[in-house]
């Protein structure tokens, strides 16, 4: 599996809200194709969305980076940082 973590830039909540419908549609398509194991927003202490966590059913980090390059959040410049890395499921 590959985990993707994107942390929003400061003040990015409006960008997130504006792009959310397109972002979720992209994730739904990936889920329908069997590529997504889990996806959801990261939350701050007030419960506001401030990042993204996506677990992909693949071992290919390059593939995940390529997919995420097309993500509406990425294209809109939402993330201050993003990282994709392999993870081993133990439980």
TrEMBL record:
Stretches assigned to coiled coil: none
Domain YCII-related, first and last residues per copy: 2-86
Highest taxon, organism lineage: Bacteria
UniProt xrefs under SUPFAM superfamilies: Dimeric alpha+beta barrel
InterPro entries tied to this protein: Dimeric_a/b-barrel (IPR011008), Sec-metab_biosynth-assoc (IPR051807), YCII (IPR005545)
Family under the similarity heading: Belongs to the YciI family.
Official protein name in the record: YCII-related protein
């Amino acid at each position: 599996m590959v985990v993707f973590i994107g942390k929003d830039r400061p003040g990015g909540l409006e960008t997130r809200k504006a792009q959310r419908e397109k972002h979720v549609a992209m994730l739904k398509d990936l889920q329908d194709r069997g590529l997504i194991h889990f996806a959801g927003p990261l939350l701050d202490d007030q419960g506001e969305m401030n990042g993204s966590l996506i677990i992909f059913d693949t071992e290919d980090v390059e593939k995940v980076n390529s997919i995420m390059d097309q993500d509406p959040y990425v294209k809109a410049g939402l993330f201050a940082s993003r990282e994709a890395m392999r993870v081993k499921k133990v439980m």
